[in-house]
Amino acid sequence: MAWRLTLNNLMVEELHTWIDSLLLSKPTTRFERDFADGTLVAEVIRYYFPDLIDIHNYISSSASKQKKDNWFTLKRKVFTRLGFDVPEAIITDICNAKLGAVDIFLYNLRIKIDKQLESRTNTQKRHLASTEQTVFPLTAVNQKHKGEPRFSTRSNVTSKSNNNLNNKWVHQSDFNELKQQCLRQQQQLGLLLTKTHSLEHFVQLVDKRINEFSPAIVDKRHTKHSDILVKKQQKK
């Protein structure tokens, strides 16, 4: 990993564009502040590897201790599984919102994510290639076991169910594809739920502020109306 480097404006802009393309729970306006507690880093990794992240382990906070707790949880439970060695000095700089530190981290994280995705894809291809060589129709299975004694009613039910699947092929690739679709849908659902909770919290804050300002607004309108009446009476 390249931790001692200077990113030019184009590289930083590309990083920001990449982050903006992800479905994060809150918009990023200032990277040094937004990524300081590590929660958005967890969301970025979960976007690509939902099996690595339990989002409840990471608590949004402005307290230094909680920030470091989040980061060292990431380092212990996630970064090690990705083979991603992040220096403690970098983590400290990010927690302290040091200018440019999070950009260097995200630059290296993106490289690691791309390598992991490529590695997983190659592994899946090799696995599918090996399983597809052993795929055969269920009719062959039925013929192989034809004539074998049936020991119970449960076996008869199973046999009848198998007969309904005649001439169909069982592909490991189909199963893997469905599994990946389920993971992607779970990931999208989790992100939508997180966004919903954030919006609900935002609405609550807005309502609270409205309730705080409403009496002052009403009082100001009443005072203004009274001043107008006084001026009219003075003119008379």
Automatic annotation (TrEMBL):
GO molecular function: microtubule binding
Xref: Pfam families: CH_2
Cross-referenced InterPro entries: CH_2 (IPR010441), CH_dom (IPR001715), CH_dom_sf (IPR036872), Spermatogenesis_Ciliary_MAP (IPR052111)
Gene Ontology BP, a term: regulation of cytoskeleton organization
Record-annotated Calponin-homology (CH) domain positions: 9-114
One Gene Ontology cellular component annotation held by this UniProt entry: axoneme
PANTHER family membership: SPERM FLAGELLAR PROTEIN 1 ISOFORM X1, SPERMATOGENESIS-ASSOCIATED 4-RELATED
Protein's name in the database: Calponin-homology (CH) domain-containing protein
Organism of this sequence: Adineta steineri
Lineage of origin: Eukaryota, Metazoa, Spiralia, Gnathifera, Rotifera
